[in-house]
Structure to design on (197 residues):
């Protein structure tokens, strides 16, 4: 399937059928996703694969009992067939941009980055992974990193990495509850593309 069709078909999956995703396949897809661009060839993005049997454990760490109690989507997420933590090493970028061919940019110091490239690289690898999942006929759902981030980092042994997102992967069970976000009136894609005269 061509890229435009994959992009058109891909939508977040938030309810899975409980079947495991083959671990070797997921590891291979992650390695392929890391063909994504990486600033200065820093290669500081890491993809940590969590197998089906550990999804529940991840959710215990990544969420709170109150959330699990009240979330209408919790059960659907918990049936994911595996997941991938996307993280990046800030020091890999600071180190790379401190090398002689890059040092003039002044980016060896974290506070000098107007746009943190480590998050950009993480997003690129994440998008590549979403498309590979789609191509494989599976579904993926994304969580940004905003809740229990330190606990997840410790649990997964991410060290100093910054967590960018969690990608749940599995077979969709068709019981998704559409996100309230989709009901928002947003500018069309055409309105968000402009040609500078
Ligand atoms: C950085 C980022 C963080 C996101 N975090 C969440 C999240 O925490 N929970 C969730 O259900 N969806 C999350 N999403 C998915 C968006 O809600 C979703 O992409 C958007 O509503 C458009 O839907 P679509 O991807 O199905 O087209 C996130 C997406 C991005 C790019």
């Amino acid at each position: 399937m061509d890229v435009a069709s994959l992009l058109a078909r891909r939508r977040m999956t938030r309810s899975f059928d409980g079947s495991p995703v083959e671990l070797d396949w997921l590891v291979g897809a992650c390695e392929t996703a890391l063909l994504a661009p990486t600033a200065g060839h820093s290669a500081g993005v890491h993809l940590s694969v969590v197998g089906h049997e550990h999804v529940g454990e991840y959710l215990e760490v990544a969420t709170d009992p109150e959330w699990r109690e009240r979330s209408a989507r919790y059960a659907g997420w918990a049936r994911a067939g595996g997941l991938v933590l996307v993280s990046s090493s800030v020091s890999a970028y600071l180190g790379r941009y401190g090398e002689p061919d890059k040092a003039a940019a002044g980016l060896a110091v974290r506070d000098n980055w107007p746009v943190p490239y480590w998050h950009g690289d993480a997003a690129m690898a994440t998008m590549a992974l979403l498309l590979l999942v789609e191509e494989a006929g599976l579904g993926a759902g994304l969580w940004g990193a905003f809740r229990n981030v330190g606990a997840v980092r410790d649990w997964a042994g991410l060290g100093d990495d910054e967590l960018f997102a969690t990608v749940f992967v599995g077979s969709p069970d068709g019981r998704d509850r559409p996100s309230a976000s989709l009901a928002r009136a947003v500018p069309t894609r055409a309105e968000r593309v402009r040609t500078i005269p």
Q: What stands out?
A: The domain at 11-192 is CATH 3.40.109.10 (NADH Oxidase). The CA atoms of residues 140 and 169 lie 4 Å apart.
